[in-house]
Amino acid sequence: MVSDSLLSQQLDQTLVGTNLPLPGRYQGKVRDTYDLGDQILIVATDRLSAFDVELTSLPFKGQILNQIASFWFEATKDVAPNHVISQPDPTALLARKCKALPVEVVVRGYITGSLWRDYLEGKAGVYGIDFPKDLKKDQAFDHAIITPSTKAPVGEHDEPISCDEVVTRGLVPADLWEEVQKRALALFARGQELALEQGLILVDTKYEFGLFGDELLVIDEIHTPDSSRFWEASEYEERFAAGKEQRMLDKENLRQWLIQERGFKGQGPAPEIPADVRVDLARKYVMNFERLTGKPFEPAVGDPKARLEQNLRAVGILR
Q1: Could you tell me if residue 71 is inside a domain?
Q2: Which keywords accompany this UniProt record (predicted)?
């Protein structure tokens, strides 16, 4: 396990952003993307956001996200093909350039998080699903459901919509949307299966899809702590029966801290995140990596920008 002292030492050497001498730079919430023609370079930074607001950075977060995504892309490529070509740096992926579908495909196996909050407030009907009236927090659904959202620009909030609206609004053609849903549910089933082998429950997750010509591919990231929620499987039933919070290995820890300690839900000025909270969150990301992959995390210590540029030069992406 990576020590807290190492995480603390790396607080001042996080990869907050990149400005590589490459064309077509686009900055997302976490990733910086460069347009290389029919390929793209995706750099996972250490930026940390919640409620669609950028808050701070975590040591090694970009490396962890990138390597977890790479692990899952490889483990699910027989279920749904993806855009990955290679991994030139611990924080970077070289991928096929796809035309991204303008919808985030959120698959849920349990009612928790934002869906539970919407359910309590009577807002869950926006997804076009007739939820039972007597659901309990963290209760499992009989089968996984899809609750899509639009993809908002950086700094704006995604908009929840129903599966029917995806088609009626003209966001995705009906036949393509059917295939997207089929692949998303298959990916989620594989993710739950492999996570359970490591003693974890894949609770819910977000997928993004794109077209490479006529080929539908999974893009962006998959089953990372930023895009997915994971619980300890061995404690689920006992905690659910007692009405206790589940043990989490994902970004919901940050959301709960923001709500409970700072009263922040994405509106108004973002609070400062203390160093000890950043270290604690980074430790959870490391634990997530090791639990999901079954491998020890090997941190790339030092200046991440210098290493990234050196590795990109080594493979000819940078001159």
Answers
A1: yes
A2: ATP-binding, Ligase, Nucleotide-binding, Purine biosynthesis
